[in-house]
Amino acid sequence: MGILLVLELASFLQIQSSMQLVVDSSPQNELLKVTFNISFPALSCEFATLDVSDALGKKRMNLTKTIRKTPVDLNLESAGVTYVDSGTKQQPKYDDEDKWWDHLDLTHPISHDDFQTTLAHYPIVVINFYAPWCHWCQRLEPAWEAATKEIHEKYPEATDRRIRFAKIDCTAEADLCRNNFITAFPSIRVFRKAHDDIYLNGQHEHEAYTGDRTKDALVAFADSLAPSAGQPYLKHSNLSEAPKTSGCNLAGFVLVKKVPGTLHFTPRSEHHSFDHNWMNMSHAVNSFYFGALPSPSKYHTLKKLHPLGLNSDWLDKLKGQKFFSTSPQHTHEHYTQVVRTTIQPLHGGKGSAY
User: Fold this and answer.
1) Which of 24, 48, 93, 255 is the most interior residue, by most CB within 10 Å?
2) Contact 94, 143 (CB under 8 A)
3) What is the pLDDT of residue 173?
4) What angle do CA 281, 285, 287 make, to 5 degrees?
5) Which helix or strand (DSSP H or E) is residue 306 part of?
6) Residue 350: its pLDDT value, please?
7) What are 208's strand-pairing partners?
8) Which residues of 188-209 are buried (b: 16+ CB within 10 A; e: fewer)?
9) Beta strands 48-54 and 322-323, pairing class
10) Residue pLDDT, tens place only, 47-91
11) What's residue 195's pLDDT?
12) Residue 252: left (phi > 0), alpha (psi -120 to 50), or beta?
């Protein structure tokens, strides 16, 4: 009888738990927060975007408000200032597609052999990095050629060579374009005294033209640049910072419905084309988790009460992992099953985490 009493007492003092699998009882339309911090060594911040879609058919493209971008180098080290993309980029205008200027001698693209010579010969050189197959490059071509002809006549070689227009075929000069961090076409860069590097407020930047792609707009832009030839840099309204590194860190969060869905990190632009053979989507996941991270004390309590304990990667399965693209058009897909875990002791409040 005494032995039975001792055994019953020992059984009573032991911690016992039970598990149930139930349908999520969250309030209707409650959103789930997805937090991420991912570094892409070869995806430019200029075009890096996040698209979100779900099984209900809802799609949100190019999310920007809750995402911070930081330029990084190939070693994933920070190489610039963190910023939030406004998401309100002005879309460039074009001349009519059937418009063409007669008697044009189309300029020949410069190559790697005469690239530095051309830049050194003129105080300002505006270069159109293009690809012949690109639709937007084809739209730009007649206006670019007409603007080139007018500018070269207005600023003749013999008497006034302050500014020149040039173009580079990136299908023929792939290495030259990559060395200038060209990832989309067309990309129009401004080079002063053989380089497109400038220093603003102690920061190292490049210059990219983002204005309209009409003949009149290009000529007006060149006219506004010409007086500054050889003078200290003055920021132009149609110039923006161009990428000076090859990569980007994307950090932030999105709120999604609790249904199957996809987060799609991709390069995107409404008026540029991309060569997917050039895309390298290698990346390192610094963090990627759902819901809110529990405090250290809450996590300790959850770990103590969980019948199987908690693994180190319980909250963030992808943290610290790196994924490499080893061939052209090699992309990555990660599948994650999200389960809400609720632990409720007999006495005290319950704790939940995903």
Assistant:
1) 48
2) yes
3) 92
4) 145
5) none
6) 58
7) 189, 240
8) bbbbbebebebeeeeeebbbbb
9) unpaired
10) 888 999 888 788 887 787 889 999 888 888 888 888 887 766 677
11) 53
12) left
Tell me what pLDDT residue 244 has.
Answer: 63
pLDDT at 235: 46
In sequence order, the 6+-apart residues with CB closer than 8 A to the CB of 205 are 197, 198, 199, 241, 242, 244
Tokens of 80: 């610039």
Rg (CA), the chain: 28
Nearest CA among 219, 221, 187, 224 for reference residue 206 = 187
Catalytic residue among 134, 170, 177, 248: 134
Beta strands 197-200 and 203-209, pairing class: antiparallel
Cβ–Cβ under 8 Å, residues 60 and 49: no
Q: Is 137 annotated in the active site?
A: yes
Q: Residues in the chain with pLDDT < 50?
A: 101-105, 199-204, 232-237
C-alpha span between 73 and 329 (Å, rounded):
21
Q: Where are the beta strands (DSSP E) in 275-335?
A: 283-290, 322-323
Q: Which of the following is catalytic: 45, 137, 177, 248?
A: 137
Is 134 an active-site residue?
Answer: yes
